[in-house]
Amino acid sequence: MSGAYSRTSGLIQRRTATVTNSTNESTNDEKEEKSSPDEDEDLDSKETRLTLMEEVLLLGLKDREGYTSFWNDCISSGLRGCILIELSLRGRIELEKAGMRRRSLTNRKVICKNDQPTGDVLLDEALRHIKETQPPETVQSWIEYLSGETWNPLKLRYQLRNVRERLAKNLVEKGVCTTEKQNFLLFDMTTHPLTDNVVKQRLIKRVQESVLNRWTNDAHRMDRRMLSLIYLAHSSDVLENAFAPLSDDDYEVAMKRVRELLDLDFDAESMKEGTNELMWAVISAMSK
């Protein structure tokens, strides 16, 4: 993952938009981990609540064109990391115990904790693969298997296909995007331009505020979902899109704090009380 950031030329003024705070909604699945009580619910109803995968893709989608950058070769593995963390936050998978010798995050295997379907096709497909695989595999292996970036031909059956297209269709069903066909000289491509700019602007504002107004200087006091989103959006090379509207001063502060998160000792963070070890394992694997 690249640790350098490129800034577009010219001064980009921060957008000022009034966003109403909505109340937190409790999850229907009692087995899912609870979000922190001070997390703002950025969406108005269950029908428009987004998964981590959808949020990362939405940050990467060009508003009018409806597709991600052709030069972005990071988002594929980033979305697989999102799937693993989403399953963990929903209480479906976890890391095996560290043991007396306290093995590192990268060496510990992913275990199926609860095989109850989540209702999301991509999540359930990945959960089924993890449940059926014996012996268990590490987080890094699962990112490679689910993205198809493995040299082992016996593991190619684990690849999740057309992930971006399937996530985009989810956004269409939730009223965030629409579907169009565009001609690119030699071929036609299905695109998904933005139709509900409010949802994306609320997402961007939440990301910005997490490293500006609501910065705690302690990763464990941040909401786990937002913390995961920042790391995975960075590894997917789409975090810059959320910070581009900021003024120069706010941009520098935001990037400085993101670098502080990237410089953390992930193994040490995973040992702290009440943490989500699999979340840190994914972050560690994606930050190599």
Automatic annotation (TrEMBL):
Keyword field contains Membrane: yes
Top-level division of the source organism's lineage = Eukaryota
Region Disordered: what ranges?
1-47
One GO term under biological process is: Golgi organization
Basic and acidic residues composition bias: residue spans: 28-37
Any one cellular-component term (Gene Ontology): Golgi cisterna
The UniProt entry, under Gene3D superfamilies, shows: yeast vps74-n-term truncation variant domain like
Write out the entry's keywords from A to Z. Golgi apparatus, Lipid-binding, Membrane
User: Which Pfam families does this one have?
Assistant: GPP34
Q: From the UniProt record, which GO molecular function terms apply?
A: phosphatidylinositol-4-phosphate binding
Q: How does it sit in the membrane?
A: Peripheral membrane protein
Q: Enumerate composition-biased segments (Polar residues).
A: 1-26
As for subcellular location, the record says: Golgi apparatus membrane
Q: Which InterPro entries match?
A: GPP34-like, GPP34-like_sf
Report the sequence similarity comment from the record: Belongs to the GOLPH3/VPS74 family.
PANTHER family annotated for this entry?
GOLGI PHOSPHOPROTEIN 3 HOMOLOG SAURON, TRANS-GOLGI PROTEIN GMX33
Task: Report what the protein is called.
Answer: Golgi phosphoprotein 3-like
Source organism = Biomphalaria glabrata (Bloodfluke planorb)
Q: Source taxonomy lineage? A: Eukaryota, Metazoa, Spiralia, Lophotrochozoa, Mollusca
